[in-house]
Amino acid sequence: MTASAIREILKITQEPSVISFAGGLPAPELFPMEAIKRAFDTVMEKYGPASMQYSTTEGHLPLREWIAGQQGVPADRVQIMTGSQQGLDLLGKVLISEGDVVLVESPTYLGALQSFQPYLPRYVEMPTDEHGIDIDALEALLKTTKAKLLYAVPNFQNPTGRSLSLERRERLVELTNQHGVIVIEDDPYGKLRFTGVELPSLYHIALRNAGGDHDKVNVIYSSSFSKTLVPGLRDAWVQASMPIIQKLIQAKQGADLHTPTLNQMIVAELVEDTLPKQIEIVKKAYGERAKYMLSQIGQHFPEGAHYTVPEGGMFLWITLPESVNTVTLLSEAVKRKVAYVPGSPFFALGGGENTLRLSYSSANPEQIERGMKALGETFAEALSK
């Protein structure tokens, strides 16, 4: 096991004067605190001591039924998790044996790499471009590589902010099904679209191709309330075929018995009214912050800096000239009171030393302006040497 690069960076950015674009932190000033307080009181009245009691491993049934209704799946195909990170860990435990080939995007979410690594997979990277995974390259890989799993973040990918196009989603589902590859679709940001048109999930494309048979779907779908509601309640879910759900239940029993009962009940009280309103509030704020950060990058960053233009989510990705090493430059940026995440930890097989991830979700315009100016100076100085 290894430490999370992001968590280690967050330790050095606790000083209030440091502007941090490092962590993927939802904006705390947008949290629906009054609604959460009301939901807590409602839960206390409705459930009393039961809200503090052990409960089923599968999760609070009203919450599972609500998710099932939204997703168009049976409630018994929904497993509540203590954050989507637990879902990734337990999926690794259930599905990965030593030496199994796991296909990952290049770059990919480093939390997934950290979750899967203890089970000793062999990572194979899939090339990506502005439209997500290069499906022609994936097809060639599948002809020569016996893969067990494919892990992807199709919507507003962490770390790049890119989204997988509809045509590529269709082909990815077809190819993986043909080659017997299980797909883990990680979708914590899908509801946070602030421009463009919503695209169908890989799960629903696979379900359509399977004629509506949920147990013939080769896609496992994972999502969370952390980015749309609040992260501190640690409520997420996985939906999958029944054989996988049954094994996840067993794995979760050994991990933590069940996700905290009270937290699930609070979320269940919020999903009908507060959640849709909260999603609209967050989308508007993040869209404005992303637009402003992009304008400041164009104004302050040196020539040769390329960046993604996300249609939603919380991140964008910077690629600098190859002579720039963002790992070694982080300390120089922190001296200027700004922090980011170097890109190299997001590459399963190494590389990406000239890249970085920026999060715009929890920064105000003044912080974005000062931070982009400081980063621009840091990178320009490095390029001048």
Tell me what you see in this structure.
Helices cover 43% and strands 15% of the residues. It has 13 helices and 15 strands. The protein is of the alpha/beta class. Helix 6 packs parallel to helix 7. 48% of the residues are buried. The model has no long low-confidence stretch (mean pLDDT 96). The chain folds into two domains: 135 residues, Aspartate Aminotransferase, domain 1; 240 residues, Aspartate Aminotransferase, domain 2 (3-Layer(aba) Sandwich). A seven-stranded mixed beta sheet has the order 2-10-9-8-7-3-4, sandwiched between helices. Helix 7 links the parallel strand 7 and strand 8.
SSE layout:
Elements lengths: L4 H8 L6 E2 L12 H15 L13 H11 L6 E5 L1 H12 L5 E5 L4 H7 L5 E5 L1 E2 L2 E2 L1 H10 L4 E4 L13 H13 L3 E5 L15 H8 L9 E6 L10 E5 L2 H14 L5 H10 L3 H27 L5 E2 L7 E5 L6 H10 L2 E2 L1 E2 L12 E5 L5 H20 L1
Parallel strand pairs: 1-13, 3-4, 3-7, 7-8, 8-9
Antiparallel strand pairs: 2-10, 5-6, 9-10, 11-12, 12-15, 14-15
Level-1 CATH class name of the largest domain: Alpha Beta
Quote the distance from N terminus to C terminus: 37 Å
Helix content: 40-55%
The CATH architecture of the largest domain can be named as: 3-Layer(aba) Sandwich
What is the count of DSSP helices, taking H or I runs of 4+ residues? Answer: 13
Profile the largest sheet.
7 strands, mixed
**Element order, helices and strands?**
HEHHEHEHEEEHEHEHEEHHHEEHEEEH
Poorly predicted sequence stretches spanning 5 or more consecutive residues: none
Q: Strand arrangement, largest sheet?
A: 2-10-9-8-7-3-4
In CATH terms, the superfamily of the largest domain is: Type I PLP-dependent aspartate aminotransferase-like (Major domain)
Cα-atom radius of gyration? 21 Å
Shape: globular
Residue share in β-strands: 5-15%
The third-level CATH topology of the largest domain is Aspartate Aminotransferase, domain 2
**How many runs of DSSP E, i.e. beta strands?**
15
Q: How many domains, in number, for the residues? A: 2
Structural class comes to: alpha/beta
- Write down the overall mean pLDDT: 96
